[in-house]
Amino acid sequence: MSLSRQMQSWIKGLAYHCGFSLRRLRAAKANTSGGGDYTGRVRPLLHKVDPYENFDWQTFPDNSSGWGSDSPAFAELVTEIRPARIIEVGTWKGGSALTLASQLEKLGLDTEIICVDTWLGALEMWTDQADEERFGSLGLRHGYPTLYYQFLANVCRSGRQSRITPFPIPSVTAAQWFSLHDVRADLIYIDGSHEEEDVYQDLVSYWDLVRPGGVLFGDDWSWDGVRLAVERFARESGFPITHRHDKWELRRPV
């Protein structure tokens, strides 16, 4: 007799607390387990205290600029999929999350967007101190980035605090947490690192978290590291890559 989902979750939690790694570094393959799926709001599982509570967002400028964050692909995918949950891996200042939230509001969908990021900056953000667009955007204070607070401020300014939930942690660790809590999503947007191995690991880690009929998609096809990782993952998994405007897509079969 198979273990109940509650027992499986308890065993996973016990293994974690005993120091066993849950990381899955493996070749990609379809998930055929047909397991359950946590359908509630994720924020109460992540934050005992609302991350926006008493945050003085007015001390930060109105600056949600990013790259590809206003793409029409977001509205098209939200309209087509009508997601119950969205996970974004790589958020920066929150531009794409705000675009997604805007479309969700137009459709009257009560969808939670979970934003996964360290808010410490990708490799290219740290390679040229004269680059105000990248290095300057880190907003260093005493040598530490303040990007997370700029993100919070942008969300607060838009009034979408109840919809957008931050998860400030490395992407692979977040995927482990989602798996541990049986959290899946209809849309997962990959827009973190541009390094091939990092992107590939994100694809491996998040593919099984896509619900049947859902879409794993991403940005930066022009970056060699991103393109090579997506092509490698698609080749190993056997799922075709499609393109929508400036985004690439991998669709999970129903």
From TrEMBL:
Q: Which domain of life is it from?
A: Bacteria
This entry's Enzyme Commission designation comes to 2.1.1.-
Q: Is tRNA processing there in the keyword field?
A: no
Keyword annotations of the record: Methyltransferase, Transferase
A GO biological-process term: methylation
Q: Can you tell me which residues the record assigns to a coiled coil? A: none
Tell me, what is one Gene Ontology molecular-function annotation carried by this entry? methyltransferase activity
- Identification of the protein by name: Class I SAM-dependent methyltransferase
What organism does the record attribute this protein to?
Luteolibacter rhizosphaerae
